[in-house]
Design goal:
Thiol Ester Dehydrase, Chain A, 8 strands, two-stranded antiparallel sheet, 6-stranded antiparallel sheet
Length: 184
């Protein structure tokens, strides 16, 4: 996919400077968090500190998990949970005080025990992609502290999301360091 080289319309660029994924396509993904950045999120450089990127991605991830049945009620039972196996953050454009960011999430794969997703932080104030967060998560039996298959009702929700996300007209820009064994 090539397009206009207007930085305010492109989310992901290729090596030649052509637009691979326009922002409007990324914005079609479900948004799990929107936040206006307060002054206490800044660091000495005058932009949002890296710890807040992770915090916002984690909050958005919890809502993404919850939309698939992995919510507080599920975790409070104490039998099953999730563990993060790998994560990767890329930063593209700074976020400053008063800017509003939105985090959109795309599921890229799942197996019986794991799921792989990427989140896109869009600075809605500047109309730029600020960062991406990619993660590989495993469902776990908390009694034995080991990976365990997801219940069918949760797996079916992930399958519906994966089916929708695999039909998108653009490839997710994955880091290449995370792989699912026996994906569905």
């Amino acid at each position: 996919m090539t397009g206009n080289n207007n930085q305010l319309e492109c989310g992901i660029w290729d090596r030649t400077g052509s637009c691979l994924i326009p922002l409007d396509l990324i914005e079609q993904l479900p948004c799990y968090l929107r936040k206006t950045i307060p002054p206490d999120y800044l660091d000495l450089m005058g932009h949002m500190n890296i710890r807040w990127y992770f915090d916002l991605f984690a909050r958005s991830g919890r809502d993404f998990f919850g939309s698939h049945g992995l919510n507080k009620d599920y975790f409070r039972k104490g039998e099953f949970g999730v563990f993060t196996l790998k994560q990767y953050i890329q930063y593209f454009a700074e976020v400053r005080v008063g800017h509003t960011v939105a985090i959109h999430t795309r599921l890229t794969g799942r197996s019986d025990k794991r799921f792989h997703f990427i989140q896109f932080m869009i600075n809605e104030t500047t109309r730029q992609l600020s960062a991406t967060f990619e993660a590989l998560i495993t469902h776990a039996d908390l009694n034995i502290r080991r990976a365990a298959p997801m219940p069918d009702y949760i797996a079916k929700k992930f399958d519906a999301t994966l089916f929708r996300d695999q039909k998108r007209e653009w490839e997710a820009p994955l880091c290449g360091a995370m792989r699912l064994q026996h994906p569905h």
